[in-house]
Here is the input.
Amino acid sequence: MDDAVDEHELTGGNTTSVVRVGDTVHRQAGPWAPTIQRLLAHVRARGLADVPAPLGFDEQGREIVSYLPGDVPGWPAPEWLWSTDVLVEAGCLLRRFHDATAGFGPSDAVWRLPATEPAEVICHNDAAPYNMVFRDGRLVGVIDLDTASPGPRVRDLAYLAYRIAPFSGDAFAGVGYGVGHLDPMARLDALTSAYGFPYSRAEVLGAMVDKLHDLAGWTEARVDDDGGPAELREHAAMYRADAQRIAATAGE
Here is the structure.
């Protein structure tokens, strides 16, 4: 096979099948895919080149987007992921993405996840290092927008903080380097500052707890209703445990 038809599975996701075909990515499409294609076109037209270009659908009905070259960190996470530069770049990119979504709200939009009020912007809803592309340790793009939907800015920022400050229980699973120097609360402040909105710690942590409870329910539904892998139940249990721990911290 030549490069035009040779498919290479892209691993790391746990919700849909994704393959690379040359310089394109083909993803199993749901009813929301046309809306996401239009969203990508909208933000790119507003100057955000940090997301894939929408390229329609293939003969199998799969969604097609351009491939963003670079590294998508998996777990265990590489040590460079926890640098302050990456933290700041992530906050700035999320702000640019949110700002670029302004004005996008077609009446016939179909979203994979329900909108959350107040619907200030289009949230990525899974803004995290595993959905970001890096080159030489620098952030160059964000991918996998299939779960995007309208919502409040702070909700998206909170989940990014959960993953990159980090507050998640699995952040350092399997790593072979020291992480004791990281201060999640201080990193939360730096991330919020980079994003550029004066949210308090309590606001972000409160949004984080709400997001984790919703995510736990959605993750369990992936198993119960859609036949997703049973290991997702362990993820849901971690989200609930983390939400309880973070809520206690926020109330201190």
About this structure: DSSP finds six helices and nine strands in the chain.
